[in-house]
Amino acid sequence: MSRTSVTTGDPVTGSSAYPLGSSVGPDGHVIVGGCDLVAVAREFGTPAYVYAPADIRSRARAYLGALRARGIDSEVLFASKAAPLTAIYRVCREEGLSVDVASGGELHMALAAGFEPARIYMHGNNKSAAELRMAFAAGIGCIVVDSLDEIESADWLADREQDVLIRLTPGVAAPTHAFVRTGEIDSKFGFAIDGGQADEAVAAVGRSRNLRLAGFHAHLGSQIYELDTYVRAIEVLAAFCAPHEPRVMNVGGGLGIAYTSGDRPPSIAEYVDLKVDALTRCFDPLPRILLEPGRSLVGNAGVTLYTIGTVKEIPGVRTYVAVDGGMSDNLRPMLYGSEYEALIASRADRPASVTTTVAGKHCESGDILVRDVGLAEPRPGDILVTPATGAYGYAMASNYNGIPRPPVVFCDRGRATAVVRRETYADLTARDVDDG
Asked: Helices 104-112 and 86-94: crossing angle, nearest 10°?
């Protein structure tokens, strides 16, 4: 069966935001993971998160392959906050990745997916005593300490020797949204190198009974395209860290992805080579290197399906296309002003005929998913697909307006399988406590 690619540079969509290997069939239907998305919507309902796990596997192998080609001691970590789904943890484990977790819940899912505790790294700027105890009981490989209070608590709670990384803020402002910058001095995360905070943290770990300083961690933020930012950060980090002879350096992630046809993120190979070159130049000997690719592992692997309920034209103003989801399943446009694309899943081969604004169904004027997007003859009952929702859609989902959260469907080699069921109305009251 002849198909037209909808990956990078495709004349139909002009977008690199769709999962690798996606296509448009001769009937105009979008195909992801070998599955017709219109049929997927019919079987599982909408809204629905749809992933192509082969895309995640391909990107994981690209990261690992690029590091192997450089011959360095390294690990690639799945930053699980981007897509905390047991099935995705499992895919990443199967591909040989390690994992970072930022809560007890994420640690629980990583363990449930079969990650070896030694390959788990625990982050977070305010880990509770219960979470630290859980991490120690599991025997995880490393804790990333984030404050002097936490160093004291972790040392007191630990029942064994525990490797730690000290999180540093190098004072480098990443060119990304202010809400996802994490490397500036004015940050809730980590210890500033300037001003002596980082020195205090090193001294505190050195005085501890059970904590061992394995190395350091820094993260500049998310959705970064300008790779020179990483070079500046590594140079600042090395000036402070190298004298301490770290065994491990976690230099974070943050590589941006394509959300729209105009986005041109750097390649995985470019990202890895630039970081390795900078680290090799700045550290001798070179410690074990940890990378956290973040959303670039999962963001383009996922799409979201909706059903159009109404098409409302305000003459001379705007045409609203209202769908059966919105800010409860994708908060990013409202939180960050993030831009997305959209297609009618059954007419992806047709040119756009109407400029529309895709609105959600929630009782908020700001519940807008996509502004000023061209759609091909949108009408009630059509299935609408938004790409690049594999990161932070499910993770940030809520029950706002009492909307049950969508299912998660894996599409792989022509087979669609639910890996998370759709919530029901009964789920909304399942945790209620009877006060009678």
From this structure: 60
Of all helices (H) and strands (E), which one includes residue 137? helix 129-138
Domain 4-45+300-429 is of which CATH architecture? Beta Barrel (2.40)
Question: What angle, rounded to 10 degrees, do the helices at 197-207 and 148-157 form?
Answer: 10
What are the pLDDT digits (tens) for 28-82?
A: 999 999 999 999 999 999 999 999 999 999 999 999 999 999 999 999 999 999 9
Average pLDDT over residues 270-295: 93
Domain 54-297, CATH:
3.20.20.10
Q: Identify the three-state secondary structure at position 412.
A: strand
From residue 55, give the alpha-carbon distance in Å to each of 7, 22, 50, 62, 343. 12, 10, 12, 11, 20
Tell me the residue type at 383.
I
Structure tokens at 102: 């930022």
One-character DSSP codes across 333-345? HHHH------EET
- Determine whether 241 is an active site residue: no
Give the model's confidence band at 436: pLDDT under 50 very low, under 70 low, under 90 confident, else very high.
low
| 162 touches 211 (CB < 8 A) | yes
Among 92, 142, 282, 363, the one annotated catalytic: 363
Phi-psi region of 195 (alpha: psi -120 to 50; beta: other; left: phi over 0): left
Strands 368-375 and 354-359: antiparallel
Q: Which helix (H) or strand (E) holds 24?
A: strand 23-24
Name which of 141, 16, 158, 19 is nearest 77 in CA terms. 141
Q: What are phi and psi of 212, to 5 degrees?
A: -120, 130
Instruction: Please give the backbone phi and psi of residue 101, each rounded to the nearest 5 degrees, phi first.
Output: -125, 150
Burial class (CB in 10 A: 0-12, 13-18, 19+), 253: buried
Please state whether the peptide bond connecting residue 47 to the residue before it is cis, i.e. omega within 30 degrees of 0: yes
Cα–Cα distance between 145 and 151 in angstroms, integer?
6
* Cα-Cα-Cα-Cα dihedral sign, residues 209, 210, 216, 221: negative
Domain boundaries, the chain: 4-45+300-429, 54-297
Determine the Cα–Cα distance for residues 283 and 251; give it in Å rounded to an integer.
13
